[in-house]
Design goal:
The chain has helices at residues 23-27, 55-64, 125-133, 151-163, 170-176, 185-198, 225-232, 240-249, 267-271, 275-292, 294-298, 309-326, 335-342, 361-374, 377-382, and strands at residues 2-11, 14-22, 30-31, 36-40, 43-47, 76-80, 85-89, 95-100, 119-123, 140-147, 208-209, 223-224. The longest helix has 18 residues, at 275-292. Helix 10 packs parallel to helix 13 (335-342). The chain contains 15 helices and twelve strands. By secondary structure, it is an alpha/beta fold. The strands form three sheets. Strands 3-9-6-10-2-1-8-7 form an eight-stranded mixed sheet. Strands 4-5 form a two-stranded antiparallel ribbon.
């Protein structure tokens, strides 16, 4: 039997209870109730309410709970069979004790419920599975507990929790990294993007939507902050979460990872706290783009993609091979060297349109391959 103090919450749907449980105690009573089909006499019955576990999501959570930032402030939501739960008063105002136990039926053993089957997870299956795989048994989580709801209520709760949630704007998330006290790849990228948006010599001046939405009083913003950050981030780190945690724990980053230079071309600058060199490389590179296709770059209206998401994604992907074409060690490559590469590309200003480079990944990929094929970069990197 498991006993925990709880508080009763009364809402239109009915009463439920809020408490705190260790991850291993919660896992000991929960079953993962996946949505699945069962054929019976030619009819299809849909059983369970949960989605199949996403292995990638579990891996991410497993890694996350091992960091110093690990936090699950929102509740795991479960339902418990009414035959397996009892709520008792404690005499303390508002505090009750919830006792959870297995149910035995001597006359109909098939109706008995083992302790590890008394509860179903309505929301939080990936968090729980991630904690289980990370062996974080003593990790405490808040739990919202419904006692005795029928299957329809369980399903409705699952739908409310998962369909009513609003996704957080990723540009806002990156912007909030500016408040962090310790360095991290995301904070560095945020600060670089702010500089790109503010500096007079930047081709992106006043063109970046800082919080992912248009800035009042500004016109011609063609890129979201999240888009620009996501393009730069892989050149600093291949594991933002782990590198953020290293910075918080130790205050420095592994020098041996510098050997991965051909993939993470800006890692050494970040490691040495020389973020300005990352900024200067980006300024030189995109100023060379603007210099090569000035008319297209100046246009901010519909029908032009060079300074929008598709164009940016194609050019930022081309940055790594272009940079490695110019240097074999971390350094600031001049605008003139980047310009020499773009001078060989036959694309004209009018070619940067959504008909030639279709919206979406296919368009940015085509632009990347066009840049590779028409410059000498692809030949040099394969020799």
């Amino acid at each position: 039997m498991i006993s925990i103090p709880v508080f009763q919450v009364t809402q239109p749907i009915g009463d439920f209870y809020i408490g705190v449980m260790r991850a291993d105690h919660l896992l000991s009573i929960c079953r993962f109730d996946y949505r699945r089909m069962q054929y019976d006499s030619g009819h299809i019955d849909f059983l369970g309410i949960q989605r199949e576990l996403n292995k990638k999501r579990i891996k991410e959570i497993k890694q996350y709970v091992g960091t110093m930032d690990a936090c699950f402030p929102t509740s795991i939501v479960i339902s418990i069979d009414e035959k397996c739960a009892r709520v008792e008063d404690t005499g303390v105002s508002g505090v009750r004790i919830l006792k959870i136990f297995e149910y035995s039926d001597d006359q109909a053993p098939e109706l008995s419920i083992k302790l590890d089957e008394v509860a179903s997870i309505i929301d939080g299956q990936h968090r729980l599975k991630g904690l289980e795989e990370a062996h974080k048994d003593d990790f405490e989580v808040s739990v919202s507990i419904f006692i005795g709801p029928d299957d329809a209520t369980d399903a409705m709760l699952f739908s409310i929790v998962n369909l009513a949630q609003t996704k957080v704007n990723r540009s806002l998330v990156y912007d909030l990294f500016s408040l962090a006290k310790t360095r991290s790849p995301e904070k560095t990228c945020h600060e670089i993007v702010v500089a790109l948006d503010r500096m007079e010599e930047s081709p992106f001046q006043n063109r970046i939507k800082r919080l992912g939405v248009a800035t009042e009083g500004r016109f011609g913003e063609t890129l979201s902050q999240a888009t620009v950050v996501k393009g730069i981030l892989p050149y600093i780190t291949n594991d933002p979460l782990a590198d953020r945690d290293r910075g918080k724990r130790f205050g420095f980053w592994d020098e041996s990872l510098t050997r991965d230079f051909e993939k993470r071309i800006f890692y050494e600058f970040f490691r040495q706290n020389e973020d300005v060199k990352i900024l200067n490389n980006l300024l030189n590179y995109f100023n060379a783009v603007r210099e090569r296709w000035p008319d297209a770059w100046m246009r901010t209206g519909a029908g032009n993609i060079i300074n929008r998401t598709n164009g940016y994604n194609g050019f930022i992907r081309f940055l790594r091979p272009a940079y490695l074409f110019c240097t074999k060690e971390p350094t600031v490559v001049t605008q003139e060297k980047f310009a020499a590469i773009f001078a060989k590309v036959k694309l004209r200003d009018e070619d940067f349109n959504p008909t030639r480079f279709l919206p979406g990944t296919s368009g940015s990929t085509l632009l990347f391959h066009t840049l590779m094929d028409q410059s000498e970069v692809v030949r040099a990197l394969t020799v």
